[in-house]
Amino acid sequence: MTSLLRSPAISLMRRRCWMLALLPLLIALIFLFAASDPAPMVSRDETISPTSIAEARRLLVSNDPRRLRRGDERTVVIPSALIDTAINHFASRSLGGRGTFVLSDDTAEIQLTIRAPGIPGPRYCNLRAVFQEAEGEPHIVAASMGSLPIPSALAEWLIASAISIAGFSEEWKIARQAIRRLAFEPARDSVELTYVWEPHLLDRARSMAFTPQDLVHMHAAQKALAGLLDHYAARARVPLSQILAPLLAPASDQTLSANRAALLVLASYLAEKNLAMLLPEAKGWPRARRVKLTLLGREDSAQHFGISAALAAWAGEPAANAIGVYKEIDDSRGGSGFSFADLAADRAGTRFGELVVDDYPRLYKVLRGSVTDADLLPSLAGLPEYLSEAEFKRRFSDLNIYAQQTDEIERRLAMLPLYR
């Protein structure tokens, strides 16, 4: 009799406990809905321009950390368009959203748009933060999420907390200590950054880019590549397909980290760069014998394919495409000339790198079969090559004519079963 009387009370208590447990989630969803908007504040694609690649390269060359000593003070002028591209690339790759950077008199504004999770219908989290220039790091003077203002102190605390949760608090601390001055220059459409070089910054950057597991996989990939090429005579011509398949497909359950590591090791080899320049740990790793890897009989096609595949796997398709076009523009100004054949190899490599990231099970089945170079890259016949800058401008300054060539490349790629 007593148990029958208690049963409804227990059930009621359990329901109340469930309601209390779900209350924070319900409040969060209500807040998220109230702070979200039906339209995105930032609406753009992921495209990276070749100009941004050129600017980034110029900054890296002029601030090569290998030529800096501890305590060196440097001032660098960064175009706002490059910062804008970097923020949008980060938002696209890390947050699945879009971002932008806007300069005004003595402030700079970062805007981010992210699709609101868990809310029916198209709803967007539109975030904005306004920074004011100052000695040292800039400070937030205004922030908002949708129509809801966020106190500056709370916004800075949220950013610091997010960095700490992501495991980058030490790197953030070192970077903040290195910054001496940040000035916004709207007249020059740039940001002027004065910093003091600290070698730990480079070590921390490596630790952010490569996890300990990545290093293990790169070591294994380097050993595998050395073992594969040891069977060939020095300087022998070897089809890339004969190396790519066994290097990339030793197991059906190979992890993304292992696949990306294999592509990076291969790209370093194709570019004839010592991996130890990027990773000091690689100094004692096995050295692969130098052979001539080719794709459809061409060494340059193998290089373009392999390097673009690694870029796509590590940095994404927009970065790989932009770097490929930038390289051809640069070649037209004094190198081997602009080549649509090279662009085709770039695009094939980019598509291959995307498969490694997005659809490895299907790629694994292909690689375990009888793979030839023709499965990786379509025919290059008829694609214009060796164009000087003047000749390129004369023939392809009309964007429609240029698009006809790039469309033809995409059509040929679509004919290959691997890229359908």
Automatic annotation (TrEMBL):
It comes from the Bacteria. This is Periplasmic lipoprotein.
